[in-house]
Amino acid sequence: MVNQNSRFSWSDTGAADKTVNVIFEGQNCTVPEGVTVAAALLGHDDNHFCHSAAQGDKRAPYCLMGVCFECLVEIDGLKNRQACLEPVYEGMNVKRQQVEG
């Protein structure tokens, strides 16, 4: 089942034959096995993963190599995970990082 809220179609990219199902904000997303969470979610409907702690602005991946911390998400209940460094796996549950103040 492909996420209907995504503007990106993995089937158009020559993606890997194996896929995994990842849950993002309660919605099932079928993505190629081995990509990072950031790569899997970049085409999601509103392009943001978290909010800045300072002003609550929407944030999305920027550097994609673990330097900027703009892609923080909650993975399986663990907060402050960098989506650009975490490979997806079957059944992974990803949520937007919530601003705590």
Give an account of the 3D structure.
Helices cover 5% and strands 29% of the residues. With 101 residues, it is mainly beta. The radius of gyration is 13 Å and the shape is globular. It has one domain: 2Fe-2S iron-sulphur cluster binding domain, sarcosine oxidase, alpha subunit, N-terminal domain (Ubiquitin-like (UB roll), Roll), CATH 3.10.20.440. The model has no long low-confidence stretch (mean pLDDT 81). The strands form 2 sheets. Strands 2-1-7-5-6 form a 5-stranded mixed beta sheet. A two-stranded antiparallel ribbon has the order 3-4.
Entry keywords:
5-stranded mixed beta sheet, mainly beta, two-stranded antiparallel ribbon
Give the low-confidence spans. Answer: none
* Structural class label: mainly beta
CATH classification class = Alpha Beta
What's the architecture, going by CATH? Roll
Global mean pLDDT: 81
By DSSP, the count of extended strands is 7
How far apart are the termini? 37 Å
How big is the Rg? 13 Å
The helix content, as a percent range, equals: under 10%
CATH superfamily: 2Fe-2S iron-sulphur cluster binding domain, sarcosine oxidase, alpha subunit, N-terminal domain
Shape: globular
* CATH fold description: Ubiquitin-like (UB roll)
Tally of individual helices:
1
Beta-strand portion reads 25-35%
The domain count comes to 1
Order of strands, main sheet, comes to: 2-1-7-5-6
